């Protein structure tokens, strides 16, 4: 099996801030002032308004028009080491709701699901598993769900890898805006690939392994022993591994991938997924070694 390398020069869990200053040691005010390029005079006005009204710096800055609510949320995320996408990236990647709107309803739903998964799959003493995200049909929101689940797992601080194993219709590279010239297909076909795992900008603990070139034999590639060996190697390098898969309507790829991963999470779309298709998928997964972590009904 071809070896892979990730593109991060350092361990993301041990990045040392420049100038020896931890972001958590800085005040919200200093972060907002730096983000908005506030002048000394503007900062003084904010401080005066803060004192006069008995409010927080961020509230005072908003009241004076020097900052927005988004600026305050960004400052909070920086202070508490909570990844929060910059405005330009939010526009480029609207599907990443857990990163773009980490304090919104959708992000909270993903965090609730994350908590359930952590309790079911990552108890002390349990065998480590990757999580295959599967769905009955195309358009159920599987890729959207896998991407945001990976973001929420990364927000816990552990190294998290999202593997795009949808060798039939890969999309994670587009969701995260990363290069897709090389990736999983090259590894499984035995070609030496360097720097195929890419770190997500703005989220130090999140990495993505794209598909690369879409192969003509997707099922055969994931059925090879090399895929199982790769999953085990990735589990040794990352705290969490989430795997996107092709929809079950295209073949048995998703069941094969789930078996190699050890755990599966089924995603269905409310008002779209057929009950029969969903039942068939769950029945097929039951015949594999994969542990069914749950069935999610996607309302978004």
From TrEMBL:
Residues 131-300 form the CobQ/CobB/MinD/ParA nucleotide binding domain. The keyword ATP-binding applies. SUPFAM superfamilies: EspE N-terminal domain-like, P-loop containing nucleoside triphosphate hydrolases. Keywords: ATP-binding, Nucleotide-binding. InterPro entries: Bact_polysacc_biosynth/exp, CobQ/CobB/MinD/ParA_Nub-bd_dom, P-loop_NTPase, T2SS_E_N_sf, Wzc-like_C. GO terms for molecular function: ATP binding; protein tyrosine kinase activity. Pfam families: CbiA. One of its GO terms (cellular component) is plasma membrane. CDD domains: BY-kinase (cd05387). This is CobQ/CobB/MinD/ParA nucleotide binding domain-containing protein. It comes from Pseudaquabacterium pictum.
């Amino acid at each position: 099996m071809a070896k892979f390398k990730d593109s991060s020069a350092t361990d993301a869990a041990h990045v040392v801030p420049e100038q020896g200053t931890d972001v958590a040691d800085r005040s919200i005010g200093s972060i907002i002032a730096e983000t908005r390029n506030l002048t000394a005079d503007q900062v003084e006005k904010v401080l005066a308004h803060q004192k006069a009204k008995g409010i927080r710096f961020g509230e005072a800055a908003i009241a004076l028009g020097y900052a927005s609510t988004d600026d305050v949320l960004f400052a909070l995320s920086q202070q508490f080491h909570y990844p929060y996408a910059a405005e330009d990236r939010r526009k480029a990647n609207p599907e990443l709701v857990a990163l773009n709107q980490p304090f919104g309803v959708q992000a909270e739903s993903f965090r609730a699901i994350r908590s359930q998964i952590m309790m079911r799959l990552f108890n002390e003493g349990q065998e480590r598993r990757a999580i295959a995200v599967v769905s009955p049909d195309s358009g159920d929101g599987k890729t959207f769900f896998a991407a945001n689940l990976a973001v929420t797992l990364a927000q816990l601080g552990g190294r998290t890898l999202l593997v795009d194993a949808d060798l039939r219709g890969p999309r994670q590279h587009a969701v995260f805006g990363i290069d897709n010239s090389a990736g999983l297909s090259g590894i499984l076909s035995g070609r030496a690939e360097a720097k195929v795992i890419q770190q997500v900008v703005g989220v130090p603990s999140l990495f993505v392994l794209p598909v690369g070139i879409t192969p003509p034999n997707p099922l055969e590639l994931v059925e090879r022993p090399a895929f199982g060996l790769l999953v085990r190697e990735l589990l040794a390098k990352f705290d969490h591994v989430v795997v996107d898969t092709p929809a079950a309507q295209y073949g048995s790829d998703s069941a094969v991938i789930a078996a190699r991963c050890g755990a599966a999470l089924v995603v269905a779309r409310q008002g779209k997924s057929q009950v029969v298709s969903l039942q068939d998928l769950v029945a097929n997964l039951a015949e594999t070694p994969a542990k069914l972590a749950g069935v999610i009904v996607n309302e978004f």
